[in-house]
Design goal:
about 260 residues, mainly alpha, about 55% helix, globular
Length: about 260
């Protein structure tokens, strides 16, 4: 999979009066203006990242569920390095339920927190067998009762394995949603609700991928590459990182991250 260019659009022109423009952009927009701008940002990101998708490798809902549990506190790339062996060895929920702890730990050790993750995925297999006939449930309220599964993981599985719209609030999504002025909250549940209210449900899954892709590649936590950002003209946080195009271009991480 080849990642698209991090930004195919030029950043906003340097000639505009930066301070005045930032002040105007940061001014509290009306609800209508906020929704309009949010949807425009989503459309622009769709053009910049036409093939945004989850960067975890999987072929079944169970595989995605396990991969997402493993992705806590590590990179998708790291997870994708261990899952081929794990998925070949354990194919069903029953396989995980009856797995040998030491064996699982050895396979996933490089993903970090491997003891807790082993406990989660063996417990996951047991819970799926005991309560869901060995199948991954298709409802958020059921998914979040499984070991190691919070709302973020549940929404990843709903959106990507079942095609049921879900907003995935990870660290990138939350940061970008705050920078765009879509929320002021640090609470993922509130972020999910407030951002969800700005978009039709049908956009939720792809919106999540686009924000996460942009956060990984351009809008970094510490030094966002504002001067190389394709949605700079729409962003009320423009200027939070370097606006000089040459400086900013060096900050862009082209991916892929899988
Ligand atoms: S903060 Fe900067 S890098 Fe992030 S979206 Fe806004 S303009 Fe782009």
């Amino acid at each position: 999979m080849t990642a698209p260019p991090a930004s195919s659009k030029p950043a906003r022109p340097a000639a505009a009066p930066g301070a005045a423009r930032r002040k105007a952009a940061k001014a509290e927009p009306s609800r209508t203006a906020l929704v309009r701008r949010a949807r425009r940002i989503n459309r622009e990101l769709a053009e910049i990242y036409p093939d945004a998708h989850t960067e975890l490798d999987f072929t079944t809902p169970l595989e995605l569920l396990v991969a997402t549990i493993l992705s806590a506190q590590t990179t998708d790339k790291r997870v994708n390095m261990v899952t081929p062996v794990l998925f070949a060895r354990y194919r069903t929920a029953a396989d995980y339920a009856g797995a040998d702890r030491d064996e699982v730990e050895k396979i996933i050790v490089t993903t970090g927190f491997f003891r807790a993750k082993t406990t989660s995925i063996i417990g996951l297999g047991q819970a799926l067998c005991e309560r869901f006939g060995g199948e991954v449930p298709r409802k958020l309220k059921d998914l979040v009762t499984l070991p190691g599964v919070g709302r973020k993981t549940a929404n990843v599985v709903l959106g990507n394995a079942f095609g049921i719209p879900g907003i995935t609030v990870d660290t990138h999504f939350g940061r970008l949603a705050r920078r765009f002025g879509w929320t002021t909250s640090d609470d993922p549940v509130k972020v999910e609700a407030e951002v969800g209210a700005l978009f039709p449900r049908s956009e939720w899954t792809m919106l999540s991928h686009r924000l996460i892709w942009h956060g990984r590649r351009v809008c970094h936590s510490r030094r966002p590459a504002c001067g190389a950002c394709g949605i700079a003209p729409l962003c009320p946080s423009y200027g939070e990182g370097p606006t000089d195009p040459l400086v900013a271009a060096k900050l862009v991480k082209p991916g892929p991250f899988s």
